[in-house]
Amino acid sequence: MSHILLTGFTPFDGRACNASWIAARQLTLGHRTPHILHSLRIPVCWGEAARAIPVAIARWRPELVIAMGEGEKGVFRIETLARNARRPRLDNAEQLPPHDCIEPGGPDEFPGSAPFDRIEDALANAGIPVRRSTDAGGFLCEEALFTLERCRAENPSLQLVLFVHLPPFGSTLHYRGEERLCDDALLADFGARLLDGVLAA
Question: CATH: 2.40.50.140, 3.40.50.300, 3.40.630.20, 3.40.50.720. Which one for 3-200?
């Protein structure tokens, strides 16, 4: 039995819901595995991911962390590279980033450490539109992924970290052979299939 941490974000850009938190919370409450799942909701404010994720890892000591955020319509993106960079974008507190990097003096980037081929294949074989990406966006999702890879490098018990961008809540996409709305039911199904794929990888 392992501890697994799932993370998502609060809504942003005037939206009422964030698909990432819905997926994380539903999977935490409805999973059918022998593992213990925890969920963390991260405010969309500069520095919050870098602050909250290490605290959650220290508290729950997970072996696996799956982080999620909202990305583009129509596709699930597996992020494979964490850059130590922030783009000049206003957060939910109407603030720009205090620095142009996540960790001043830190490495320029962390290559992703997850078994991307096997995870991508598992999702694609289930009829899920998925692709890999090397641009996590330079916003809070980038900060979350960079922080996770930093934590993994420093915590031998943290075996695997992964970041996935989900389509925005309420958008439409071709999912498992049909046109679907990105709603609670779809996100619950995706979360379960993602977790199964990661555990099998």
Answer: 3.40.630.20
Compute the distance between CA of residue 27 and CA of residue 30 in angstroms, rounded to an integer.
5
Name the pTM for this structure.
0.96
CA distance 102 to 9: 18
Tokens of 80: 């494979």
Pairing of strands 178-181, 81-83: unpaired
Compute the residue count for the chain: 201
Q: Which of the 8 DSSP states describes residue 7?
A: E
Q: What is the DSSP letter of 16?
A: S
Cβ atoms within 10 Å, residue 20: 31
Please list the residues that pair with 173 across neighbouring strands. Answer: 180
DSSP annotation of 100: S
Q: How far apart are CA 124 and CA 191, in angstroms?
A: 14
Q: Residues 94-128: pLDDT tens digits?
A: 999 999 999 999 999 999 999 999 999 999 999 99
Cα separation of 38 and 41, whole Å? 10
Q: Which residue has the tokens 């609670």?
A: 184
How far does CA 107 lie from the centroid of its chain?
21
CA distances from 158 to 4, 63, 67, 88, 105 (A): 10, 4, 14, 31, 24
Q: Identify the pLDDT of residue 32.
A: 85
